[in-house]
Amino acid sequence: MIVQQPSLSNSVRWLQIQTSSDLDLHSQLKELIPEQQERLKKIKSEYGKVQLGNITVDMVLGGMRGMTGLLWETSLLDPDEGIRFRGLSIPECQKVLPAAKPGGEPLPEGLLWLLLTGKVPNKEQVDALSKELRSRATIPDHVYKAIDALPVTAHPMTQFTTGVMALQVQSEFSKAYEKGIHKSKYWEPTYEDSLSLIAQVPAVAAYVYRRMYKNGERIPMDDSLDYGGNFAHMLGFDGPEMQELMRLYVTIHSDHEGGNVSAHTGHLVASALSDPYLSFAAALNGLAGPLHGLANQEVLLWIKSVVDECGENITKDQLKDYVWKTLNSGKVVPGFGHGVLRKTDPRYMCQREFALKHLPNDPLFQLVSKLYDVVPPILTELGKVKNPWPNVDAHSGVLLNYYGLTEARYYTVLFGVSRAIGICSQLIWDRALGLPLERPKSVTMEWLENHCKKSA
Ligand code: NMX
Ligand code: MLT
Q1: Mutate to test the pocket of ligand 2, among 253, 298, 338, 389 (most ligand atoms within 8 A of CB)
Q2: Which of 18, 112, 346, 434 has the fewest CB atoms found within 10 Å of its own CB?
Q3: How many angstroms is it from 260 CA to the middle of ligand 2?
Q4: Is the minimum distance from the CB of 276 to ligand 1 under 6 angstroms?
């Protein structure tokens, strides 16, 4: 059945609800790749010289905001509407992607299938992919040893990235390249590495958590569980609501088009034909920055500092004073603002809906709700903030904290596990489409001055 949804973009012209019993993701991709290669060839030959906008000095000096410069097939971000995964919004994904139980949160494996193929999988296809991911999830012993070589106090992101780097020794892409693989076949070992990496990151991440906070006792994978459920289980959380939260969490953090720091870094590094492990480890180092993924840690620590100073039943006036105190000390209010979004992040909204359903009386959720009222007018009053609204990180911590995952320093690792799905999906397409080495032009201040004087 073809889904007819006028609001969907052209990138999902081939979106289908599958009725096919083809359970093999690899062979589906193999079928799709030649069609998409032709499509790209046609775009290049027919539209290669079409302009996409003018580059201004402000853009060059302003972190390339608004400069279109990347091809990213798996998702597209609208400043007002938020993210669409292959054309589907988060509420649409919640409706159409298979769930562990009727009406439940989407299974991240389903999203992986969607990102890779542009098609909504059926439950059998998702179950087959869950099984395949479980079969690839064994972690070689040297990975644990590499992590163990770090002090247990090292930041969880440092430990996690070290684990990902240690996984790199198994890269099929690197081995194939060394043997002289033909460029038309690059996508195949990239696919192998990507699926293995996606399969293995939850166990590596769970080990970091157990090592740091639970005396190093590892919990083996449960073969009856799906990807998100298993991740919660290996962390030590077996409650059904926490498993549902993890499915939602991993789904919504996976991809946010290509220009964000982690996705762009992964794509840039992979453009040198660095394998998916090297590329994803680089991406994680970007995610570990406080203006990007580390903001989820910063939000919960900041909320806890509010509670320490003013108590849980803080009034809105007290909260306003606290926000101003943060701003006046030269810090950002974590969890608010965005490089592209200009409205409330739909990833924030779906977490808010989850909280309203499962933990409406939680004091920290109520504090987050008060912040939603208090912070945007203050950021607007500052006069320079382009988006005063909350982003994904403003909400995730209080949900995790409610279910007992209270260690805020760990939160960015969860984001990292999820982001493997988006970054690796696009890396497979990067190689399938033969995308080139990324190498933009840079200039000096002297060059800018001379150029601008000449064109004045
Ligand atoms: N609190 C205080 N100041 C802010 C905030 C905020 N939440 N957001 C933006 N500003 C400031 C920003 O620092 C800049 O100041 P200055 O000119 O003095 O350098 C000014 O407003 C203009 O910034 P924008 O153009 O609005 O934002 P930009 O695109 O540069 O940065 C963020 C986007 C996300 C880095 C920024 O909004 C921010 O620092 N937010 C808080 C950290 C955060 O929540 N990051 C997570 C983003 C989502 N993610 O997961 O990656
Ligand atoms: C992300 O999910 O990557 C963040 O919202 C940051 C971004 O999109 O720039």
Answers
A1: 338
A2: 434
A3: 5
A4: no
- Answer yes or no: are the C-beta atoms of 255 and 347 closer than 8 Å: no
| Predicted TM-score (pTM) of this structure | 0.96
Domains of the chain listed by start with CATH number: 131-292+407-433 (1.10.580.10), 294-403 (1.10.230.10)
- When pLDDT is averaged across residues 405-431 and rounded to a whole number, the result is 98
Q: Which residue has the tokens 């990347």?
A: 70
Set 253, 264, 292, 395: catalytic member: 292
Helix axes 123-135, 25-47, angle to 10 degrees: 100
Ligand 1 closest atom vs CA 335: 44
Two structure tokens written together for 424 = 């690796």
With contact defined as beta carbons under 8 Å apart, do 198 and 224 qualify?
no
Among residues 233, 256, 267, 338, the one annotated as catalytic is 338
Task: Name residue 99's beta-bridge partners.
Answer: 106
Q: What is residue 326's predicted lDDT score, i.e. its pLDDT? A: 98
| Phi, psi dihedral angles at 19 (to 5 degrees) | -115, -10
Residue 267 designated active-site = no
CA atoms within 13 A on the CB side of 299: 32
What is the 245 CA–ligand 2 centroid distance (Å)?
A: 20
Angstrom distances, CA of residue 424 to CA of 42, 318, 421, 449? 25, 44, 6, 40
DSSP letter (8 states) at residue 118? S
Three-state DSSP state, 311: coil
The residue nearest atom 46 of ligand 1, judged by CA position, is 292
Residue 323 Cβ < 6 Å to ligand 1: no
Query: Residue 58 CB: number of other CB atoms within 10 A?
Result: 9
The finding on whether 333 has its CB within 6 A of some atom of ligand 1 is: yes
Provide DSSP, 132-152: HHHHT-PPPHHHHHHHHTS-T
- Name the nearest CA neighbour of 358 among 305, 395, 408: 395
- pLDDT tens per residue across span 109-128: 999 999 999 999 999 999 99
